[in-house]
């Protein structure tokens, strides 16, 4: 079975794939004909695909987020690859394929990531900080096992948010050792809370974001997390103006660093400065790593990466 | 008694004034001598003043925010007016002067302004919106009678915040009549809540801001108001994700319009767009009106106004 | 007859519409075939439409800005609706339809709007200001009955410019009452003159702008209005450097507020500050109102609105 | 007699100078004493100076823009040189000094510069363009003999504006020869008109700007020049919308290139693009030349030059 | 034979053209068919062209940068002209056409331009400056005969870089005469070196850039030229920190003026300021001249020009 | 002996300090008197100080960068602390104080830091990368023991540059372990080379920068380092266009990330992205740590920190 990342122009292939999206459309011809416009994906990448001359049965058989077996031909259209589907049928039980094999996901299992996060929460020494963090994590605990960290920007896959958190926690741990003046409880709490509202800001399934929620657009994950800390404090009986509550809200509110990036206040505590840069370095390096991994090895340059000043990345080569 | 706004270079004068600030300093001379460095103010404006050769008694007699009787001489120092104090004593009971006569304040009495606001709150038709607004107003009700709307930017005087709200409510009322598709309850609520946390963001006395509070710097009045709405909803048993709560939070969070001006989300409801512009037009026109009022009538141009792209305003004259 | 705003995917419909634009194009097929690429519009909105296999007669029968009777089928192409035309013929006299029923227009009749403007001009107390305004209005009096206020930005329809002026005059009147230090004559004059050159800056028919004029591109409506005031003063024998002429030119030149928005000077008179914000609030709220009105009621969000920081607007709903 | 540019710390000197400004001020001492705070200048530069313990006679004897004979001592105050005046008296007829010897001026005589400009105007082939230019030049013909091109930015001295024009005309002539597609009449007209309103935008005496005029602040030299072209056309009976008038207005309006630099439209004709860059190159190189000329030869670096991105310029040296 | 610039919609034509690019693609039809997607060009411009139903022979016969004889029909597709090819064959020896007749090139022969540059190098008086310049020119001497100055921005044709240099040298010569304080050796050297690394930054054939080189993307022509000056100095035994080497590097490094335009330092020598503006004026006027030359004479406006703030240019017309 | 950081208003104290700067100035009095204007510093901070009525002997006895014993009184002048010197004498051999005790320095000894850097260089596996790095380090090896990393921005003290490098190397090591796709040799080389030219860009003594060098201003440390890599390659016989040389130059040239921050190219290799963020996080956290350490413990807020968006940092406190 061929991985999508390995398909090239004029390749004919057979394999199982996930229908990431599917729409019924009409051609320009007279009379217009129905065709299925789909996005095939597997864990290695995705490609647009067309089933021309779709029959009424076809239109009732296939649906988004379903697994299918496809025989196809890769063509070039407007300088991009797309698949002309020659044969297609839904996957059956006896095919022995399962959905989670066909989606991109973090390189560590979600269960393990969420368990690591739980352990870090338990390890927070300060009672009030720990309980506020636990309350907020509790609001999205189930979704944390699959939520991505973004729609397309970085860690946009199954378990991406938890993976981002865990990597940041590792780096935070390193920095607290290197610079003991940093408060480790606050930094851990800030890392876990900074994007904690993302699972409610975006509507996602299997790590794939379909859209932003109304709350996500009107309030945004930064203010949502601040509100959740308020809710936690009220429900836990902690004073709303205690230094701990203010510090946690400051960490969350300032983590995008600048107003034009969405933070209503700028970092003004050592831990808030650290949080912003830990977030930035982990997100940027993951974008680079993911772009290199999903670009064919024969290519010297990745596609343009929006989060890196819209620059492509060159595959480091030192021979020569 | 001469108003500070009317004093000119070389004027000698006698009058009662408020010591807006006072510090003991030393001259460069050998040996150095103590002097009092003060800011005299009345309702018309303020001027720096020096009491040279301050005696030990002087240093114990005068304090900030106290009323004094002064005989002084106006001089020019580095192109600005300052007062050399010839005689000074504290005001006494029999002088019959009172503090509030010496501070700048809104042209309508605070009591009246706050009563107007209360009436508007009572007039909100929707029960949940009304109770959330009432809860938030209740957190600062006492301070609302004197709080300014800003440190220096606009409405920076006794009752300035309430005055700003009332004027905005008048304009909001006009617009709801002109454009009935606007929801009047939401617009009223947005106007009252948008700056409701300012009395806790800044530390003020008699309408004069001395500094920002820790909470004001770390969280800011925009996120504070959003948090208060959350608190209100929790305590009143209203769902945190109900459209009303989200709408009120959106109004508050978006009222500065752009991220670089402090709003983590941009206006995305009709009432939020209206709120931003009602706020802007009232603040800007008040800056102009106040600048013209505190500039001597003989001057064609006001000083530069930071909130107006740092431009001066020309006193409109049509004869000619 | 179905309004364009109510059409959905796969709807088949019959009705009268205006051909806002029409072009003859060729398909990619071998041999290529001619088709008509049109924009159908009525007062509620517009949709692209194709007449495939256009006959020589078709190509001579239909023309832009003509009324037609259409039988069509709504399809989706590249995620947008477009109409496949099944039958089409020109409207006839006996159909009893008239052009102005099919264009978007202000909710108040043009005649009434222009009369209101004339009354306001007559009500300007100062003789020189009134005559300069009358002279400038006279240069575009006829076009004022149909000119839009912009190509697409806001009030982009029949009578849109006059409607924008009248609404601004209402708001200006309110503000002059609320803040009597504003000069009402100047503010009225500024509102009427600020966009007075727009009918010459853009080439429009029935409220639809087809392009900018050479003068509009090389000089622009802001400097054009300033030039017209100069012309008025020369012809009326008013001194070019009189405070009134300078004030009127200042109002016009500064009304876009910032250099990057096209104003060579920034507002430096109270009335100029007021004018800029009155213009802004009326334009922005009209964009919101128009976007909500032309978005199907089933949609929660309008399309992105360029003039609102490219944000969509959420349809306010308070039940829940 | 020592040139101001040559004075160093601790130098004692005698010479004639111009009092560019003068104010009576008071010291901090008890009792305060009057002193004269002056700016001494000659053609090579300027220095602040103090006459301590000014007598009543002193205060009546000296005035701004007067010539004086001074014996002084150069001191350092806050890292800058200033003169302590030991003796001072007004210049007398028998001293044989004249005002114009003490001001900075263009290296070519004003009469010659203005005559060159007149010759260029006469050489414009197109009748209408020539007469519009002549009309506008006529409005400031007298002031052109002494007006500076700016307050401090560049060519800020006696005859600076005419000198700037003449140098630009030379460069324009070179470019029209190098690129014959440029229209020479338009380019000459644009060069002469682009800053023609500056003598009315700023109030200047002997090439020294004291302030901006009200018209300069409310309308600005760019829109003023456009208005003058309108006036010329009306008075000369040329159509206001003729291509020539529009082209001249476009040249003037667009010559600052960007909105944020004050141009309401951007260059959209070949000659307008040329004009902007001819203006830029002449202004920038003159800033550099003037900064090098007024910096002591012993200094490697000039002071920071605001018009050059606030950078200092290094004195080119190639030995080594 | 028809020039490409003269072709209009529905024209049928026969002529020789260069295939600037060629790709084999498939149609959407069932089964998909191969077609050739080409760009035809001659010295006057370029047009996209399609050969539908390409035979296997066709696919082996035509290749990029080959000359062909074409019979074609001009059609409109998505508002742009494109050619439907009716007949096509490769050019033969007996056709008597040669490649260089079909590409855009500078109006002066490359040999002459390069000889002029060599003469200027020989005329540099200072031995070390001359030899550094000669060394750097030597690294690209062969490519200089055909290299363009940019991919699309300006002078994007055969010999464009040398033409740009020669025109700049003429203007530099004029300015050194007008302002003798400029060092002519440095300015000549700066003009020749400022873009000297461009032939290695971009991969070009016949003046047409196909892509940026790896070195061009990772280091860029500005730092490359600085490195070449270092290399020259090491190899010629000139001290790396001598004022001459630093000056040459400064000229090259600062010639884009601002950091956001790619210069790591800003101009801080008179010659560097001159260099930047000579470069700017020559590039901008050439953009305008080329845009006017390649726009049909019947068009009043050129297409938008990215390097001119994305504005179109109006064809100057003075009759009227 | 009192540390400077501990001095408060009105404190009288005795101690040894370093004269970081010293100038002879005159008072305004008649006749003016000489006084010494000095900056006293020790390892904890610095304070301005005045010796009034300086005798001729005083003026010859004291000089910048000398150690002195001072008896002084702390006063407030313009809201800032300054010292009035009561007695002062140069330090003597028998005082047993040494210069390096009085300057701020990295918390690890310079010798140890430089040795660590040497070890890392030796540990680079690739021969060519290692030798290029060794060559460049060799150019500043002596200065590396004391050079600061900046004039005021961050690590502005004795050994600051080496300390910055070593901390970055630790963080780089952590990231290479966390993300094995990063090339460790390149990242180490990039960290060591990125600021390697700073000791030649700035003139420093004992870790205190007095000014930028001519080379530093005209070329800048970024292009200087690129030039040094070129020089190393030429001298070591490595091809100038080998991937290793290009990669090292890319790392150095892109490490400021954006053009407006001084990088002529943006990061386009994984290691370049990592380098930029490692540099940023270490610099920012050091600014915070240094600001907290040099702010009196009684202060809640540090002064504004320019490198942190000009924000102050709040001293984290969690009790409450």
UniProtKB/TrEMBL annotation, chains A, B, C, D, E, F:
Query: In the record, what terms sit under GO molecular function?
Result: hydrolase activity
Tell me which InterPro entries the record gives: HD_domain, YhaM_exoribonuc/phosphodiest
The protein's UniProt keywords, in alphabetical order, are: Hydrolase
Q: Does the keyword Hydrolase apply?
A: yes
GO terms for biological process?
rRNA 3'-end processing
Is S-adenosyl-L-methionine one of the keywords UniProt gives this record? Answer: no
Start and end of every HD domain? 162-283
What protein is this chain from? HD domain-containing protein
Organism of provenance: Paenibacillus faecis
């Amino acid at each position: 079975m061929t991985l999508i990342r390995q398909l090239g122009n004029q390749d004919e292939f057979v394999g199982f794939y996930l229908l990431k999206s599917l729409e019924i459309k009409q051609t320009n011809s007279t009379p217009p004909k129905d065709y299925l416009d789909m996005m095939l994906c597997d864990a290695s990448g995705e490609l647009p695909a067309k089933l021309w001359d779709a029959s009424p049965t076809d239109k009732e058989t296939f649906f988004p987020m379903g697994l299918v077996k496809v025989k196809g031909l890769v063509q070039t259209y407007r300088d991009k690859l797309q698949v002309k589907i020659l044969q297609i049928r839904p996957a059956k039980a006896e095919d022995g394929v399962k959905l989670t094999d066909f989606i991109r996901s973090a390189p560590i299992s979600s269960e393990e990531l969420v368990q690591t996060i739980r352990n870090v929460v338990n390890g927070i020494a300060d009672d009030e900080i720990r309980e506020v963090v636990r309350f907020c994590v509790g609001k999205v605990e189930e979704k944390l096992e699959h939520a991505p960290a973004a729609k397309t920007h970085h860690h946009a896959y199954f378990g991406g948010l938890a993976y981002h958190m865990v990597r940041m926690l590792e780096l935070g741990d390193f920095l607290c050792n290197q610079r003991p003046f940093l408060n480790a409880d606050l930094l851990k709490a800030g890392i876990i809370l900074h994007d904690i509202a993302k699972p409610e800001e975006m509507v996602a399934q299997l790590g794939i974001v379909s859209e932003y929620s109304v709350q996500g657009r009107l309030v945004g994950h930064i203010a949502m997390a601040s509100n959740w800390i308020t809710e936690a404090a009220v429900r836990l009986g902690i004073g709303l103006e205690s230094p701990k509550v203010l510090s946690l809200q400051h960490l969350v509110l300032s983590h995008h660093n600048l107003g034009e990036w969405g933070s209503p206040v700028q970092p003004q505590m050592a831990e808030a400065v650290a949080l912003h840069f830990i977030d930035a370095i982990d997100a940027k390096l993951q974008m680079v790593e993911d772009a290199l991994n999903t670009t064919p090895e024969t290519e010297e340059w990745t596609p343009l990466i929006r989060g890196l000043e819209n620059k492509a990345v060159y595959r480091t080569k030192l021979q020569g």
